[in-house]
Amino acid sequence: VMSVIAWIGLGHMGAPMAGNLVAAGHEVRGFDVAAEAAADASARGVRVTASIAEAVAGAEAVFTSLPRSEHVRAVYEGPGGVWETAPASALLLDTSTVDVETSRWCHEQSGARGIRFVDAPVSGGIAGAAAGTLTVMLGGEAEATALARGFVEPFAGHVFELGGATSGIAAKLANNLMLFVSLLGVAEGAALAASLGLDPERFFEVAAVSSGESWPLRTWYPAPGVVPTSPANRNFDATFTAALAEKDLSFAVEAAGAAGVRTPAARIALDQFERLIGEGYGAKDCSLIAKFASPDGRI
Ligand code: NAD
Fold it and tell me: Which residues form the 3-hydroxyisobutyrate dehydrogenase-like NAD-binding domain (predicted)?
């Protein structure tokens, strides 16, 4: 059944996700502050609007895909924002990766206004967004997450209803902690193999069918010409920026600290992303972290 759906934030992830809702037959009205993002979404069949109010008018579902917690807070609570302008009957779904506190605030403030909110972070990157194969992690009241399932299906490969408020974000932050700690292991193992004289392609073949196998090994192997999807093949142009990796990992470490969970490995990974950003590489791919493992600091 066709629905009217609003989409706020048409960036690397938002535009292809919204495009998959269009392809599924929905009418999607999108808003972004950046003209370039809006143009990309328009080419995917999204009807671009000039304001949040215009995008959300009459919408059954309102998605957000925004860079950071402060953008999510501004889009919800700002003048002319989602809470002020969306129909009370709309289901709000935030697919951004935010901190647990921001997600909790979205649930509480939406609830206080009588509006249903679901935290709906995603995993699978820009390729998964385009292919419609993202893993979607839903947190909220059972009735709301059941309704959310239908709306996210066109861009999802896997949908999990994980329980109450912030449980989607909890899964996303824990997942990304694992991802970035694994990435450091891949970087150090790859550097060791190369410095002990192994050919990178040959060693990759071994590790890929051994106990060192992981998603960053398969996807981001940090030597040129080994795996086609690796940023190392393209001067570390970003598929996932170091700046966003630092953001996700800092939220995970912060949540762990609040819960008394000890995460020394995640802290080392976080330090290295901060160093990468400090050296001016925040907009490069997070897999450039491998330079710190290399004997001469080069890849
Ligand atoms: P992005 O920066 O490409 O897109 C965000 C968009 O939001 C931009 O186009 C920006 O102009 C827009 N925006 C900012 N403020 C706005 C406002 N007030 N009103 C309307 N639009 C506004 O980021 P992205 O890579 O698409 O990531 C979006 C979210 O998804 C982030 O929270 C990120 O952590 C998460 N995420 C990203 C990936 C990935 O691989 N890129 C994977 C999973 C999750």
Answer: 167-291
